[in-house]
Description:
alpha+beta; 4-stranded antiparallel sheet; 25% strand; RmlC-like_jellyroll; cNMP-bd_dom_sf
Amino acid sequence: MNAPPATSMLRALPFAHRERLMRSAREVSFPQGTRLCVEGGRADRFWIIRSGTVDLDLHVPGRRAAVIETLGHDELLGWSWLFGPHAWHLGAETTTPVRAYEFDAAAVRSMCQDDPVLGFAVAQWMGGILSHRLGSERTRLLDLYAPYGSGSFG
């Protein structure tokens, strides 16, 4: 559940960029069981979790949604906002009460376009998160659905 070093905004972005992004954030709270995003829905915001936990899940036809990863303190929730068509790739639901910083996706994309150095730093941050999450998804899906031993690398 702990973020790898490259995925924490506090460790991934230079101070000036982090401060600029945080000026656009607003504090929000969600009760346990709140659906924050649905696969295929419009990705118009993202969050950095301050406290609590959120499950990332994947819709599986005919089955209960598969939990891919659980996010917690200081982790980013949502990356689909950065890349067109700006639709959620996964769902997310709070598993405990959550406090978070919420960011407007269009405003952050505009900041990134106006300041290419900021845009590059945000893209690098997102790249680290995507790499980590794809590895987690692969492992979890193999654990759930693949024949025994198919997830190991030789």
